[in-house]
Specification:
The complex is a heterodimer of chains A (470) and B (340). Helices cover 54% and strands 16% of the residues of chain A. Chain A has helices at residues 3-43, 49-53, 73-81, 101-109, 151-161, 180-190, 224-247, 262-267, 278-293, 315-335, 346-380, 385-413, 420-454; strands at residues 60-66, 88-95, 111-113, 127-133, 141-146, 166-170, 175-176, 195-204, 209-211, 214-217, 257-261, 298-309, 468-469. A ten-stranded mixed β-sheet of chain A has the order 3-4-5-2-1-6-11-8-12-7, with helices on both faces. A three-stranded mixed β-sheet of chain A has the order 10-9-13, with no helix packed on it. Chain B is an all-alpha fold. The longest helix of chain B has 53 residues, at 4-56. The chains are: A alpha/beta (470), B mainly alpha (340). The A-B interface holds A 11-12, 15, 41-42, 44-45, 50-51, 53-58, 186, 188-192, 386-387, 390-391, 393-394, 397-398, 400-401, 404-405, 407-408, 411-412, 415, 420, 423, 427 and B 1-2, 4, 7-8, 10-11, 14-15, 17-18, 21-22, 24-26, 28-29, 32, 128-129, 132-133, 136, 160, 164, 186, 188-190, 192-194, 196-197, 220, 227, 231.
Chain lengths: 470, 340
């Protein structure tokens, strides 16, 4: 087969592939709309205060690993303590921070030794000490000080000390909505043991105002890089996750905020300390476990914005984050390759896994190969420039339409960004994003693939500027 | 290869779609703002005459003229469904805020504006949303006439509606737990939480005997009743608890009963606890039963019974036995002698 023939076949293959990917997104859009509509009908009349005041509501343990979070730790813990839930324990795991995280916690909450033994037996790095706040009002705050072992290891340490069967694993720098746990726990209450995990929409807090750990005013980020991510998050959560949740094919609950059944997570061996994409890996393992037991189960996503997180505001940090996400995705897909097209795993094997494999992992790679071939053809004078540009325009308009749909979804669900100017900025962001931001994500994805092949396992540093307090 | 003309048409279509989506967002936003303003305006207009009506309806010195004026004002405002809904919401809010003596007046307003008929009509409506709103309203207004309709909805196909009807039934029916006559009814934890929230609002004299339902075939119902026995401290349920403990093989239920025994100090159930200690093979249940025995058991029998568990090969069980023996104040030296 000569290069010309290869190009011909590749063109057709890409055409079919693109048609499939676009079609799948259109289907996901419809399903997500249906899913959110159903959620609104089911929860429009719900008084979540019922959960707050009920002695029958289950206990929840919130686990938040912290590594060198000295700048924001007190503000973050304040936020966690302000969550409105009756039976709540909060475990902060100091994962061997080299800054003043532990000292700040010790002073702020006058920590005293916590004498209870761990309930779980997951292996972790050495625990230096377990403390509890000596103030009566914050007596539910437990601090685990341990040697550095990474996020998964810290979460496992937290799981060991959690006493409740429901555990919420969150990033310590996240700001949770006060009623977030009430909303997250509801699917567990409604189902008879079927729900194994729930996740909520994660929103971007850059430029927003925070007071005493509460989000006071949600604002659209000021920097373009943050705005691109804002739009990306909207698409991912309000279309992808909601649709997969409806199909019960979700393979990921965001590591930023997820609620799990501890018994299932423990039986699966807890978080995999060798994995970079620990959040996705655990969900896949929990699903596999339920399949093996042949028990009905659900992983549910909630379209309400429950958690606010700060996203990287400079390119190098963002690049490292995306690189890690790509490696995490490949790592999980490779580790659980037995699921792929395996009818034993039903929808997860026949649809979810192939979607992640072909459309999430391979899409950026195929994009790069296609672009390289196009440049080669252009140099050789074989490229129909007009056709090529029309196709590019088509992809661009499709991406814009998808962003517009996610903006509509947002308008229908939350209505958090009241200013008209914000909406204009978001539309402008949707117009620029495919040209400016998308190529960057493709590049980072390629770097992630290369780094994975090289065996790179590091997380990469994430600098925080802290929330803008009022 | 696909015709470029088709791609062009798709581009045009997607562009139009995107513009349509943006337009929809703006229209929705404007509509939302307009409705919010309208809602606030009607609410403000209704509030004052309604407050006057509710407060002064029972006041015989009030001039008939002003009462009629206020009545007509509200009647004029509430011509559409939207404004009627606002009036309903206002009434429900007032009911939560006002004292018990004013509730009768709210009911008079409820009847005077024909809201009872409105609610009944909506309960029979096809739309789930309307039905739910009406169910909530009728329950809040204590409209007992709606009970037959509510009862019909207890068997509806839509789980959401079924659950809402259940809650309304608890608020309205003379016997709030009568729906448990249905042997197939299951209660999710969410239903249990909501029923409990309604039960605590009831007059204490109307709280049903949960012990009567402990022989229900559905475990979720039994679990709920056990939780309620503990919550409402129904000591009178001891006979039914005794029977349940004797009949059930479900370790979870047995542990719940043991928890009630320990918390309500139901010493009369000592024999049943002893039976569990003797017969069970479930180590968690055994540990709990040993602990209960330590709390409520008579000294002599407990000592005799638990003496053999002090040497149990399962360290957790032997520890529980030792703790229980300490609870019944078996002093250190006697405990050592017993162990020896």
């Amino acid at each position: 087969m000569n290069l010309h023939q290869f190009h011909f076949y590749y063109d057709n293959l890409i055409m079919i592939y693109s048609a499939f990917i676009m079609l799948s997104y259109v289907v996901l859009c419809f399903i997500s709309r249906f899913s959110i509509r159903k959620y609104d009908v089911n929860n429009g009349f719900v008084n979540f205060e019922d959960i707050l005041h009920s002695p029958l509501a289950p206990r929840i343990t919130l686990i938040a690993p912290a590594y060198n979070e000295g700048v924001t730790i007190i503000e973050n813990v304040k936020s966690l303590l302000s969550i409105r839930y009756r039976k709540l324990d909060i475990i902060i795991v100091n994962d061997g921070s080299t800054d003043d995280t532990m000292e700040k916690l010790k002073i702020a909450y006058r920590l005293e030794k916590y004498r209870n033994n761990p309930a779980g037996m997951l292996k972790t790095k050495q625990i230096k000490g377990v403390y509890r706040s000596s103030y009566i009002t914050t007596h539910n705050l437990i601090i685990i000080d341990k040697a550095n072992g990474g996020k998964s290891d810290a979460l496992n340490a937290g799981l060991n000390y959690a006493k409740s069967n429901l555990v919420a694993c969150i990033d310590v720098d996240c700001i949770l909505e006060p009623d977030s746990l009430q909303k997250m726990v509801k699917p567990f209450l409604e189902s008879e043991g079927e729900v194994i995990a729930t996740g909520g929409i994660v929103r971007i807090s850059n430029s927003s105002q925070v007071m005493d750990g509460h989000m006071v005013e949600a604002k659209l980020p000021k920097r373009w890089l943050e705005r691109f991510q804002f739009l990306e998050y909207l698409r991912a959560f309000l279309i992808g996750r909601m649709a997969w949740s409806k199909l019960n094919g979700l393979l990921i609950v965001s590591g930023a905020f997820g609620l799990f059944r501890k018994d299932i997570a423990m039986k699966c061996g807890g978080y995999d300390t060798g994995s970079i994409g620990e959040d996705m890996e655990l969900i896949v393992r929990m699903r596999k476990y339920m399949h093996k037991l042949n028990r009905k189960y659900k992983v549910v996503y909630i379209p309400d914005p429950l958690c606010w997180t700060e996203v990287p505001s400079n390119i190098s940090v963002l690049g490292r984050q995306r690189n890690r996400w790509t490696r995490g995705l490949i790592d999980t897909l490779v580790k659980h390759k037995d699921i792929c097209l395996n009818p034993k795993f039903k929808l997860m094997g026949m649809l979810s896994y192939p979607f992640w494999l072909f459309f999430e992992w391979m899409a950026p790679l195929l994009e790069i190969i296609g672009l390289t071939l196009c440049i080669y053809q252009l140099l050789m004078g074989n490229l129909y420039v007009e056709n090529f540009l029309v196709l590019l325009l088509f992809v661009y308009v499709f991406a814009f339409a998808l962003s517009c749909f996610s903006l509509l979804q947002d308008e229908l669900t939350t209505f958090k960004y009241v200013r008209r100017k914000d909406l204009l900025y978001l539309i402008l962001t949707a117009l620029i994003e495919p040209i400016v931001f998308h190529p960057m994500t493709v590049y980072w994805s390629l770097r992630g693939n290369i780094d994975y092949l090289k065996g790179k396992k590091r997380w990469g540093e994430m600098k925080r500027s802290g929330f803008k307090a009022v | 290869m696909i015709e470029i003309a088709i791609i062009w048409s798709l581009i045009k279509l997607l562009t139009l779609l995107s513009l349509g989506l943006i337009a929809t967002i703006y229209v929705l936003r404007l509509r939302k703002i307009y409705l919010q303003k309208k809602h606030l305006r009607i609410e403000r207009l209704i509030q004052k005459p309604l407050a006057t009506l509710i407060v002064k309806l029972a006041d015989h010195t009030t001039e008939e003229v002003s009462r009629d004026e206020n009545f007509l004002k509200i009647k004029k405002l509430c011509k559409t469904n939207r404004s009627t809904e606002i009036l309903i919401r206002q009434l429900m809010k007032s009911q939560n805020v006002l004292e018990y003596s004013s509730l009768g007046d709210i009911n008079k307003v409820f009847l005077a504006f024909g809201l009872q008929e409105y609610g009944m009509k909506n309960i029979r409506h096809k739309s789930t949303t309307k039905k739910i709103k009406a169910l909530k309203f009728m329950a809040s207004m204590k409209c007992h006439r709606s009970v037959p309709y509510v009862t019909d909805l207890l068997n509806d196909n839509r789980s959401l509606l079924r659950s809402e009807a259940l809650i309304s039934f608890v608020s309205l029916a003379k016997d709030p737990l009568y729906f448990l006559e249905d042997r197939d009814v299951k209660l999710s934890l969410w239903d249990q939480i909501r029923i409990h929230r309604h039960l605590i609002k009831l007059d204490p004299a109307k709280i049903p005997d949960f012990g009567e339902w402990l022989n229900h075939p559905q475990i979720s119902v039994v679990q709920f009743c056990l939780k309620m026995i503990l919550e409402f401290k129904q000591f009178r349920a001891d006979k039914q608890l005794k029977a349940l403990l004797a009949n059930t093989k479900n370790a979870g239920i047995q542990m719940m009963v043991l928890n009630i025994i320990i918390k309500l100090q139901l010493v009369d159930l000592e024999n049943e606890v002893l039976l569990i200690v003797r017969n069970t093979k479930n180590s968690r249940l055994l540990r709990m039963a040993i602990a209960v025995l330590g709390e409520i058991g008579s000294k002599a029998r407990t000592r005799l019974m638990l003496g053999e568990f002090v040497f149990h090969p399962n360290s957790k069980i032997s520890q529980a036995a030792r703790r229980s023996l300490t609870t019944i104040k078996l002093n250190e030296s006697r405990l050592k002698r017993l162990i020896a």
